[in-house]
């Protein structure tokens, strides 16, 4: 494990620096190596798709899909005390305030 | 009126009898012919409110601009749908264009109606082709939800309208708008009358949409295919505005008191929906919320019932119809290339599509109401009349204008400027058809700067 070399597409993470070697536990080092290997595979997959001259379609990014789904579908809203307060303060109270303002301004 | 209605009805045989090779060419040419005939309506010579050759269909300075907008939009819708409908079997293509033409027929009859019941029937009838277009040809599974919201919000709003119209028929004996504008002001002084007043207007407020009942609009606009979005944004919202303008004639003097909640909802809606626009990730959703914002301003202008309010409302309706439809077409071009409506995905498009960046620029400038475009003129007239109504509204409308400018620029900068992502370099170049579509949207807006009398309504 001490001889982890840099891969062509994955630079050496700081935690696998041989100078840091004796600060870390073996389990941690193994986990970091596995993560670095996964990152390298993902990056290789992306670059293969990016540089494919016959590619016509978009490269799909599952993180983007998840993010847009989370942003657009409001399944994560729950009516709690705080959200109800904010909703009432910005959605209901201004209507009454404005009614009072306009009414007094026009009647007087 | 018949010189446009009969060619529109003859569009149905055109669609079903042309050979598949010539379908798009003939339908586009036929509808362009109808649009140019409708342009002859813009010259009216009489000074009265209405010009009619028969008792049932009329035209006047209020509804002629809306009629011309409707007729102008059909060839644009057919042009815009050409790409995404092409892979389908031929009979389904014909069915799609038939639905668009059916919508057109109902809209012409709705805008030209002199009897309020005919207007109501056509108002309801336009729901059906739109529902079919949204739920059958939309792109995501949410389209079913969107169609349901669209149908039931509008239906729930318009059933009280039917009851109110029948009551009006009982009390005045007629429902022809030509006659009703001369009738005596009705005695409206009880709770029942207040419900009648609300019943008359709720349908149109839902359609406009007013801020509290606007929830159907983002769903319907986002899930609809491009022609559906175009016709929804450009014309169907204006049906609500037009209906309100016609009904307000008869609803005095109760409107002075009862209009307060709706004016307040409309004004607060401008700010709230404008702020939501700033946080959107979906491009079509942003344009849909900006539609709600502009129509909130229109609703405020109509409910004030002053001549400037009405004029401003019509001008803003026409200008917003053209510009919003243009923005939906642009969003569709991005969608057809990347199959995603996410704004941060299709960024930096100015580098690869420079001419389209010009269209994006002009459309966004029009959306944020740049002078001398008619968007600004309409907004200014409405803001002025609201200021006259109560000086405190300037806070809301001023802030609304600021937020509108904010999100329009945000839309432009997000889609055009910035680094082009590496992984979308292989996009199709822009077709001439798409450039033609954009010019046909934006040239009328620019030309209307020179002759706004066409749009002013009867109050100039």
From TrEMBL, chain A:
Signal peptide limits: none
Transmembrane segments: 84-102
Annotated Gene Ontology cellular component terms: mitochondrial inner membrane
Membrane topology designation: Single-pass membrane protein
The entry's keywords: Electron transport, Membrane, Mitochondrion, Mitochondrion inner membrane, Respiratory chain, Transmembrane, Transmembrane helix, Transport
Broad class of where this protein is predominantly found: mitochondrion
Pfam family name, one: NDUF_B4
Compartments (UniProt record): Mitochondrion inner membrane
Similarity comment text for this entry: Belongs to the complex I NDUFB4 subunit family.
Role played: Accessory subunit of the mitochondrial membrane respiratory chain NADH dehydrogenase (Complex I), that is believed not to be involved in catalysis. Complex I functions in the transfer of electrons from NADH to the respiratory chain. The immediate electron acceptor for the enzyme is believed to be ubiquinone.
PANTHER family according to UniProt: NADH DEHYDROGENASE [UBIQUINONE] 1 BETA SUBCOMPLEX SUBUNIT 4, NADH-UBIQUINONE OXIDOREDUCTASE B15 SUBUNIT
Quaternary assembly: Complex I is composed of 45 different subunits.
Name of this chain's protein: NADH dehydrogenase [ubiquinone] 1 beta subcomplex subunit 4
Organism name: Cyprinus carpio carpio
From TrEMBL, chain B:
Keyword field: Electron transport, Membrane, Mitochondrion, NAD, Respiratory chain, Translocase, Transmembrane, Transmembrane helix, Transport, Ubiquinone
Domain NADH:ubiquinone oxidoreductase chain 4 N-terminal per the UniProt entry, residue ranges: 1-110
Membrane topology listed for this record: Multi-pass membrane protein
TM annotation in the entry: 21-42, 62-81, 93-111, 117-137, 149-168, 194-217, 224-243, 258-279, 286-304, 310-330, 351-370, 390-413, 434-450
Biological processes per GO annotation: ATP synthesis coupled electron transport; electron transport coupled proton transport
Source organism, top-level taxon: Eukaryota
Keyword set includes Translocase: yes
InterPro entries tied to this protein: NADH4_N, NADH_Q_OxRdtase_chainM/4, NADH_UbQ_OxRdtase, ND/Mrp_TM
Gene Ontology cellular-component terms listed: mitochondrial membrane
Catalytic activity: a ubiquinone + NADH + 5 H(+)(in) = a ubiquinol + NAD(+) + 4 H(+)(out)
Subcellular location: Mitochondrion membrane
Pfam families in alphabetical order: Oxidored_q5_N (PF01059), Proton_antipo_M (PF00361)
Molecular functions per Gene Ontology: NADH dehydrogenase (ubiquinone) activity; NADH dehydrogenase activity; ubiquinone binding
Residues of the NADH:quinone oxidoreductase/Mrp antiporter transmembrane domain: 113-404
PANTHER family noted in UniProt: NADH-UBIQUINONE OXIDOREDUCTASE CHAIN 4
Entry's family note: Belongs to the complex I subunit 4 family.
Function statement: Core subunit of the mitochondrial membrane respiratory chain NADH dehydrogenase (Complex I) which catalyzes electron transfer from NADH through the respiratory chain, using ubiquinone as an electron acceptor. Essential for the catalytic activity and assembly of complex I.
Identification of the protein by name: NADH-ubiquinone oxidoreductase chain 4
